[in-house]
Amino acid sequence: MKKLTDLQALINEAVDKLSFPETPADLYEPISYILALGGKRLRPALLLMACDLFGGDVEGAVQPALAIEVFHNFTLMHDDIMDKAPLRRGQTTVHEKWNANVAILSGDAMMVESNKLMMKVQDAILRRVMDVFNETATGVCEGQQIDMSFEKRQNVSIDEYLTMIRLKTAVLLGGTLKIGAIIGGATSADAQLLYNFGVNLGVAFQLQDDILDVYGDPGKFGKQVGGDIISNKKTYLLIKALELAKDAQADELSNWLNNQTFDAAEKVTAVTGIYSQLQIRQYAEQAMQTYAEQAFGALDSINLPEERKQHLRFFADHLLVREH
Amino acid sequence: MKKLTDLQALINEAVDKLSFPETPADLYEPISYILALGGKRLRPALLLMACDLFGGDVEGAVQPALAIEVFHNFTLMHDDIMDKAPLRRGQTTVHEKWNANVAILSGDAMMVESNKLMMKVQDAILRRVMDVFNETATGVCEGQQIDMSFEKRQNVSIDEYLTMIRLKTAVLLGGTLKIGAIIGGATSADAQLLYNFGVNLGVAFQLQDDILDVYGDPGKFGKQVGGDIISNKKTYLLIKALELAKDAQADELSNWLNNQTFDAAEKVTAVTGIYSQLQIRQYAEQAMQTYAEQAFGALDSINLPEERKQHLRFFADHLLVREH
Q1: Is the confidence at residue A65, as pLDDT, over 70?
Q2: Is residue B267 part of a domain?
């Protein structure tokens, strides 16, 4: 049984060895560039961990694990165009460093590369693996589209929000783990349980992220605390507050959302005050807890001795109890 | 043995039946929209013809044929963003009707859909088919990138131009035919011959298109005659002329290329005059002939009775002897 850090190191080494043709340079250099920006390589490492969980050959799963990393970075390259993001991991984004056309086309080529890497599994599981991969890719596209549509919409329900975060980020975690399980020789039932573990964990993690953005320790949380409030981002907290606020409270919240000029600290204090009155933090933590329990419930149900699951459980525990 | 028009009708029917989820609407409506714009459905029909050539089950090849049509339209959707094209088949392009973000993301989703459709082949040939499909997709991305790079470059060689048209359009024809052949039960050797037929035919067709743009009958050629000359498009003819022109001729050609204001008819006449002096038409027709002969040579070598090849030969003859 291998530890997450060892698996991340294995992936880092394999990413460094990934090579693409030299020409056309404007097609392949952006791919090498975005992959070299780093990141924690959590998803591919988790694919290996899922494979290892069922006693599979971890080395043999490295190429499909890279497929997940390449796919994920393809979505980042295209998302950054759509979001007009200037930076990715502190470095200039591809569409800024080159241009939008290069980022569109290199992203397309990356998706093809990810398909090729994912094909590097045994014939006996090829269709199962590719079916999961394709379904995952569809989910990620749907999630991104729903997320973009939220910016233009006034009313978003909690259910719609949960669907969005599930598709946009959680299904990739679930799909990654399921593919690792299939490569590792898991039964269909166990592979599906690991998928459920991943999806629920992913949703719980996103909800925790929403909570930490408001209630995190500024010294330990990696982002500006209150950033979501300042930018009117539709998070679980804001959507729940809009659902529950009545009369004067609703007016106050609406004013803060519509004000074009405001003092940022004042807005964060005021909106957080409304959240407190409405017990929004408790609602959010309850929802997060529910998803976390479903995740751990799925992990518990997997038909393996507990000691085999320790690394995955440790990872999930660690993910959901970040310092805040 | 089925005729091309029958196969096109079969594809049209299948395209009409293709359905996508209702939501997110901005992800799936653009896919239905671009597919409904029509087109001759030549590529998918040729996949069926290749399958039929080897006695395969044409009905069973319809889904992979649709994969080619969906893939082709995905590339058009993204190309139109890159080219800032306002119209596609006389209708508003997706990025104009919706916006560029929608066109990027719907294109991505289309590529996933095309992969899913291509997976609908028997397990025994799944890897071979997907390998050809992925290689084809890589080629198309490379070709588009090389084509974009030509706009910024002064000197493009004939070899580079031939590589570009081969990748951008001809490998898709070759890949389509090869996939059809594999589904139809062809040997590897015959499938490869059909690939060679398609690629060479595709290059010959592009060269013919370059020739017709200058020498076609205005009443029969679908586009404005001389359009390539007016827009300084780097075609086989222009590249060859730049290679061969010397002294005063080279200066005159260069002046026409650099003039920002000019009378269009005058420019077409002058540049065509230079082409005549340099016998550019003959060079282009010779090159086209060489590719056509390679295409027909590959078709001849396929290990089947001549009468089975008649529809494919008729198609190629017809493609390369358009009215002009």
Answers
A1: yes
A2: yes
User: Would residue B108 count as lying in a domain?
Assistant: no
The first and second tokens of residue A215, run together, are 């209630």
Look at chain B and report how many structural domains it folds into: 1
Token pair 């799963």 is at which residue? A61
Name residues 72-131 of chain A within 8 A of B (Cβ): 78, 81-82, 100-102, 104-105, 107-109, 111-113, 115-116, 119, 123, 126-127, 130-131
Contact list in B for residue A109 (CB cut-off 8 A) is: 138, 141-142, 145
B156 part of a folded domain: no
Its domain, for residue B239, covers 187-324
User: Is position B236 within any domain?
Assistant: yes
pLDDT in tens, B220-250: 766 778 999 999 999 999 999 999 999 999 9
Interface predicted TM-score (ipTM) of this complex, two decimals? 0.96
Predicted pLDDT at B323? 44
- Distances in Å between the alpha carbon of B241 and those of B29, B146, B216? 45, 20, 19
Q: What is the pLDDT of residue B324?
A: 40
3-state secondary structure B116-172: HHHCCCCHHHHHHHHHHHHHHHHHHHHHHHHHHHHHHCCCCCHHHHHHHHHHHHHHH
Q: Is the pLDDT of residue A324 over 60?
A: no
A323 falls in which pLDDT band (50, 70, 90)? very low
Mind telling me how many Å the CA of A274 is from chain B's nearest CA? 32
Q: Residue B219: which CATH number?
A: 1.10.600.10
Token couple for B220: 């029969």
